[in-house]
Structure formats: C-alpha cells, structure tokens
Design goal:
This protein is α+β, with helices and mostly antiparallel strands. It has helices spanning 54-76, 90-104; strands spanning 2-8, 11-20. It has one domain (2-79). It is built from two helices and two strands; from the N terminus they run ββαα. A two-stranded antiparallel ribbon has the order 1-2.
C-alpha cells in the first residue's frame, strides 16, 4: 500500500489522497493490465469501492474521517509552527530550513 497526499489546487484545507496497492511482477514476467482508477467524492465511503476489503474500508473511512479533526486542531493551536520528530521527519525539517534560507536571501 502506498499513500500519496497531493495539494488540491491552492486550497490549504483539502488535499487529494491517492491509495495505491502495488504487487510484484509475477514469476512469469507478464505484467497484468493496470487496474482501473476509482475516484471517491469527499463524502463517499471506501465500502463503495468494488472488490475492496470491507475491513480495510472501515479502517480507511475512520482514518480519513479523523483528518477533519486534525485540520481543526492545527488551526486552533496557539503554538506557532509544527513539532517534527527527531528521526522520521528530519527530511521535512531540512526542506523547510532550506526554503527559509532561500526566502531570506536578498
């Protein structure tokens, strides 16, 4: 499973969530045809995706439902900026430090 979150235009309050299921190439070397993409609207459930595992659908519905609460929490915090983990998010921190350096130049 691969998760990809992409910007939704210039809207800071939403994003595009891509969920990809990848499989190794069969031993025969023949690649199957690509799966058809299924698009869900904001209010739709993962249970509406044909052939999707019902257990996983429930989990994804719960996870994506939590995003609204997270967004509200980000906006209501009095602490400026975000707190990043020391190990896993070091690359995010480095990216923002690099952007800050470029923006500070004359």
């Amino acid at each position: 499973m691969v998760y990809r979150f992409r910007p939704n235009g210039n809207d800071p309050d939403s994003c595009i969530f891509d969920l990809l299921f990848l499989q190794p190439v069969p031993d025969s070397g023949e690649r199957p045809e690509p799966a058809e993409m299924v698009e869900l609207d904001f209010e739709q459930s993962f249970h509406e995706v044909p052939g999707f595992d019902p257990g996983l659908a429930t989990i994804y519905d719960q996870d994506t439902g939590n995003l609204i609460g997270q967004q509200r929490g980000f906006k209501s915090s009095t602490k400026p900026g975000q707190t990043l983990g020391n190990y896993q998010e070091v690359r995010v921190r480095q990216l923002h430090q690099t952007i800050d350096k470029f923006l500070a130049r004359d």
